[in-house]
Amino acid sequence: MTTIPDQQEAARPEKDVLGILDPDTVERILVCQQRQIGDVILATPAIELLARHFPKAQVHVFTEEKCVPILENNPHVHTVWSVDKKNLPTLLHEFAFYRKVSAQGFDLVVDFQQLPRCRAVTALSRAPVRLSAPPRWFLRPLYTHWTQPEPAYAAAYKAGVLAPLGIRWQGERPRLYLTDEERSLAEKLLDSLGLGGRTFISVDVTHKRFTRCWPARHYAALVDMLAVEMPDLRFFLPYGPGEEEEVRAVWELCACKERVAVPFSQLRLRELLACIERASLHLGNCSSPRHMAVALGISTFTILGAGGAGCTFPSPEHKHLQAKDLMDMPCQPCRNSYKCSTNVACMEKLEPQLVLPHLMKHLREHGKGIVATPPCPD
Questions:
Q1: Distance between CA atoms of 239 and 14, rounded to whole angstroms?
Q2: Spatial distance between the Cα atoms of 2 and 10, rounded to a whole number of angstroms
Q3: Where are the alpha helices (DSSP H) in the chain?
Q4: How many CB atoms lie within 10 A of CB 350?
Q5: Other CB atoms within 10 A of residue 42 CB
Q6: Do both 153 and 65 map to the same domain?
Q7: Which of 68, 107, 123, 301 counts the highest number of beta carbons within 10 A?
Q8: pLDDT digits (tens, 9 = 90+) for 212-232
């Protein structure tokens, strides 16, 4: 095993890996991306790159049960091994499942997360090449090779882990694959919400971290302003587990409630994907629905709070806005997002009237089905 003095360095030069793996003889690859939904979406370019580089190999993915719908119909994925805690009540059951996964005879394991379950499968696989980002010193025996990707868009960063294989990210975006039946069902659902045949934007107003969630009153005010500027536009506010109350609170704050559609119940993940694909643009925080929109080819406009812009796909169709872009913010770039008080300045001070002209411009230039009309004179 090669040791390194600093975990920022690569464990072995790339030629070592290229000498071990022949693209024409590799039969099975395991990609470990246990969670979350957004991260699984961001792993799809790396999965596609692996499938193209090893054309004869089956690409398997190890992930959580809730993430499985993200990989449905993906032509680059052969098998999904999903972890469902309900079906693994004891450590013995877990170990047996990990043994079953690892017994597939993988030639290559790529671990993107190094979480305990990922590490267990990686270690049990005994694959000749076990690849990851630089692990902590006590985890190094689990991996044969590692490399430090350059800071980049999150999907590009994951693909950077594949550099020792001679694989480079060339701008591949995340991808999700819907069926015609799913699209048809989404049309019926949208029609029941009054959005059938309408031009609408999807709006994600939630985030599990309050330091990355634009205030509800700001979203409601922005929707109302946009409704005045574009009378034909409608708004679609979906929600995930435990988010209904938060979303309906935004709806209550809107003056143009008749233009804002909130689903009657939480949508299944594939239903949500098909509805977002029908949107003209996706507006929201940096969370899973934003990555869904990118993967479905829908333009996005993201309000960023604490954290950088590493989740923004590098393309004009995808724009992010932070308070520091419009005003002096001494605390930016953020270094203490977990220590911030409930009054998050970078979110509170980014008033909706400051966001509106930037959103309008982006919507006119990149919104699907939006007629590019000049702004009204003052």
A1: 44
A2: 10
A3: 14-20, 37-53, 68-71, 91-102, 116-125, 154-160, 180-192, 216-229, 244-253, 269-277, 288-295, 345-348, 352-366
A4: 24
A5: 27
A6: yes
A7: 301
A8: 889 999 999 999 999 999 999
Q: Is residue 353 located within the same domain as residue 244?
A: yes
Q: Are residues 187 and 315 in the same domain?
A: yes
Which residues pair with residue 189 across a beta bridge?
none
AA identity, residue 364: R
E strands, 104-217, in order: 108-111, 129-132, 145-146, 199-204
Examine the domain organization and report whether 260 and 321 are in the same domain.
yes
| 65-115 pLDDT, tens digit each | 999 999 999 999 999 999 988 888 888 999 999 999 999 999 999 999 999
pTM: 0.91
Q: Cα(145)–Cα(135) distance, rounded to whole angstroms?
A: 10
Q: Please check whether residue 106 lies inside any domain of the structure.
A: yes
Token representation of residue 255: 């003056």
Q: Which of 263, 264, 270 is nearest to 204 (CA)?
A: 263
Q: Are 43 and 138 in contact (CB under 8 A)?
A: no
Find the Cα–Cα–Cα–Cα dihedral 246, 224, 365, 347, rounded to 10°: -50
Q: State which residues form the domain around 95.
A: 14-165
